[in-house]
Amino acid sequence: MPPSKVDLYAAIRRDARAGMSGRAIEKKYRVGRRTIVKALASAWPEPRKQLPPRASKLDPFKPAIDEMLKADLDAPRKQRHTVTRIWHRLMDEHGMADVSYPVVRAYVAERKPQVRAEAGRGPAEVFVRQSHRPGDEAEVDFGEVVVRLAGEDVKCFLFCLRLSFSGKAVHRVSLSGGQEAFFEGHEHALRVLGGVPTGKIRYDNLKSAVAQVIGFSRSRVETDRWTAFRSHWGLDAFYCQPGIEGAHEKGGVEGQIGWFRRNHLVPVPDVPSLQALNAMIDEWDAADEARRIGGRARTVGEFLELERPLLRPLPEEPFETGRWLTPWVDRFAQVTVRTNKYSVPVRLIGRRVRVLLHASDLVIYDGRAEAARHERLPGKSGARLDLDHYLEALVRKPGALPGSTALEQARAAGKFTPVHDAWWAAARKTHGDAVGTRALVEVLLLHRHMDGEHIVAGLAAALRAGALTADAVALEARKAADEADGQPAADDTPSVPSVVASLTARRLEKLPTDTRPLPSVAAYDQLLRRNRTPREGTASP
């Protein structure tokens, strides 16, 4: 199979960068000079020029055909032009020749609905009002929303499951609209409702559920995990028509998403995390049960009380909604999940780990032990790094810390505070860059066993006293923790705020007084010769 033009351009550019001459490239790939110039100018081939539409022998007679079709709009139904009649009239009245019947038929088939639409006489769009039985049907859909997440605008996905009878809707926001969010939205909604609809649930042909649409029928090839999920929860799926026509078959949930977005997500919500936003959404869903839809005599909550006892009971066994992945850990202590990178402890470099991917977070396992947990990144080609994962490596390479991406993200997240920076600067000034940075890494290791606020308090106290060692920070952090718990200090002596002792000195103060005599080597003197005679041939000292 010959290479594509993109591959050809890539090969030409690669050889040109390697120093191959233009004549050698022409001979190697059998191309002309102009092709080489275009390849070196752009890695992407320019699109092929579109040729103008080819003239047809029917072009002079198209206005006459349009006039016949317009006349048919007001003509009796049984006295309108057929394609055969149009063809004969063109030959008899307009002198058409050398134009075949299929050419005229193709143009009439294309132009006839356009003429009706231009005259405002398109096919009437009919909507038939539907009635729904309690506990029988539901509708599911996704909608896009924008959320200001931690100060940054992020596009998220709003899942909605709506009961058709009562109008009760359950919503959930996630960073992804993939299969994980699809499953988690179902599980959350069904548990809130307390049961499963006994009839059909209407769906779009979304990729999380449908692998292939078979022709123009209602038959679908479903994904394996969706089939297992439906079987577990006992869901009966009904798939709408593809395209805009299918939106009318589940108009209830389509309108519900728009209503919810306008009434609860305007203005754009500013939240610290998706967990906080979903907690707010649960409260909004509960409050919305007091509203009436249209001219209904009862509220959504009153209809729900009639519908809830008719739902099918929930299954007792849980179903894992997350997706398991097994990526390798690269030399940067990162795993790649859906084009995004997430950090793991450096001890896992070069090993394969297991990742449980959820809609808004992911958990990384080393065997059965949890190794890392991250909030899922929106978009593609991003990186989320935890500074704690790199501390063991930074002890050996302290020079890599100042410019590391993990440190930059820790600062942005507020985990690496200005107090850390101030103590680090003082430690480097006193002990040098390498020793001062290693001392900071030892302080950061304390975060694995102590609260961050206590360590920040310990850093501030140690900085005021000029104690630039990790032991001093640990001591002051423990004092701050004891004060926060309302416990007295570990020693009975009153603490002096202006003096910070090292951890070693504090331990030595606890030891009893040593009354043993000092060691002596006098017993070894008896082994020495008192009268040493010089050997023959040597001078006496």
Describe this structure in words.
- The chain has 541 residues and is of the alpha/beta class.
- Helices cover 39% and strands 14% of the residues.
- It contains 18 helices and 15 strands.
- The strands form four sheets. Strands 1, 2, 3, 4, 7 and 8 form a six-stranded mixed sheet that branches. A four-stranded antiparallel sheet has the order 9-12-13-14, with no helix packed on it.
- It is flat.
- It starts with a helix and ends in a 31-residue tail after the last helix.
Note the overall shape.
Answer: flat
Strand content: 5-15%
Q: What is the radius of gyration?
A: 39 Å
The tally of helices reads 18
Mean pLDDT metric: 88
Structural class: alpha/beta
The number of distinct β-strands equals 15
Concise structural overview:
The chain is built from 18 helices and 15 strands. It has helices at 5-17, 22-29, 33-41, 62-71, 83-93, 101-118, 179-193, 224-233, 251-264, 274-287, 300-307, 391-396, 405-412, 418-431, 433-445, 452-465, 470-485, 503-510, and strands spanning 138-149, 152-163, 169-174, 200-203, 210-213, 220-222, 236-239, 270-271, 323-325, 334-337, 340-343, 354-357, 361-366, 369-375, 383-384.
